[in-house]
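User: Run a structure prediction on this.
Assistant: Running it now.
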Amino acid sequence: MKTPGSPTLSPADAARYDAVGTGDKAKDPGVFLERLQSPTTHDIAAIGDLWHKSGLTGPGHDAGRDLATCLNSGRGSVILARTAKDATIIGTIMAGHDGESGWVHYLAVSHDARGTGLGSGLLALAEDILAATGLAVNKVTVTDPAVHDFYRKLGYEIVETVPRTNTQISEIGTDFVVMRKRLKS
């Protein structure tokens, strides 16, 4: 088993995912992926706006803080999907681990790019990154019941429901579930 650490993409994996979306460069040549390393102020604002519009965060959420925590942890990666035309951020996913399980956060796809396969492609890439570190399981927390089916279709199962209590602070203010999937080794 590999030791969990900060993964990097091999040239073959990078080529495999450089046109995430439909998975066919001929049909979707205008999307490229980037592993975020040093976000600009513009990137942070665009990411925060996408997360808010996707219902993942509340107004005023500090996306920069979450990005910095992930990037400085030594255990996480942030992948962005951008349009080739003007480098607009149209998708994000944050992948990391706690030493035992992989976790994905902030899987977001812009409204205009939904239904193209971009979300499932980003999730597959995150799973590959986590599996490459030697992790056997990936988990995700989901606050929107409408999103449960998306994850179920990709092999995830609900393993825990966590009700929001009055003592919990939640920007969105909803209960959430933890979903899990075994990763291919």
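The CA atoms of residues 44 and 64 lie 6 Å apart.
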